[in-house]
Design a protein that fits this description.
By secondary structure, the protein is mostly helical. The protein has two domains: 56 residues, Orthogonal Bundle (Arc Repressor Mutant, subunit A); 140 residues, Tetracycline Repressor, domain 2. It has ten helices and no strands. Helix 5 packs parallel to helix 8, helix 5 runs antiparallel to helix 10 and helix 6 crosses helix 8. It is globular and about 60 Å long.
């Protein structure tokens, strides 16, 4: 994006948001390789030249989306409170992750696509900031287990399991709905099932 000393006008902010919203739709449906700047611009109801005023390339749009996504995606993990009740904190994390899959399926599929591609954009972030955060929260969970407040559990793999069991409902939405039958929403049942599953797993 072209940098300006002055704050963005309302129109500029609106156009930038429209570009990112359109790009989220296009990237989540077609992947990075299948997306084009022209299609993103058309979806945003802007000309290609107008889009390139805000973002110099497809890669710049993609990076901006992923940076924003990761920040939002990790907020529930950051909120895990070492001073809280262990099972309540972990179950709250499970529910927040499941709700994000319900509310933000395109974001989940965008992130999954980046991972399946080998994380060409986010590789350094994954092994840096993400790893540090997960290690920190895994230490909290490990301390709870050592104190007997939850059952013995590998904290890193517990976090991986939560990611897998919640994001599956967004990333494999078509498969889930096909198996369950058409328009039936899986999320209320999934909430009850996962709450029971992790309650049993974590019970000392």
């Amino acid at each position: 994006m072209t940098e300006h000393a002055r704050p963005a006008t309302r129109i500029q902010a609106k156009n930038r948001a429209a570009i990112l919203e359109a790009a989220l739709t296009v990237f989540s449906e077609k992947g990075y390789g299948g997306a084009t700047v022209q299609e993103i611009a058309r979806t945003a109801n802007l000309s290609k030249a107008n889009l390139l005023y805000y973002f110099p390339s497809k890669a710049a749009i993609y990076r901006a989306l992923l940076d924003s996504l990761l920040e939002n995606w990790l907020a529930p993990l950051r909120a895990l409170d070492p001073a809280g009740n262990p099972r309540e904190e972990i179950l709250r994390y499970v529910r927040r992750k499941l709700e994000m899959s319900r509310a933000l399926p395109r974001e989940s599929r965008l992130f999954a696509g980046e991972m399946l591609a080998g994380a060409p954009v986010m590789g350094e972030t994954l092994s840096g900031d993400l790893r540090a955060l997960v290690d920190d929260k895994a230490a909290v969970i490990g301390a709870w287990a050592e104190a007997g407040r939850i059952a013995p559990v590998d904290p890193h793999h517990l976090i991986f399991a939560i990611w897998a069991l919640t994001q599956h409902y967004a990333d494999f939405d078509v498969q889930v709905r096909a198996v369950l039958g058409g328009a039936r929403s899986p999320f209320d049942e999934a909430d009850a099932f996962l709450s029971d599953l992790f309650t049993r797993l974590l019970r000392p």
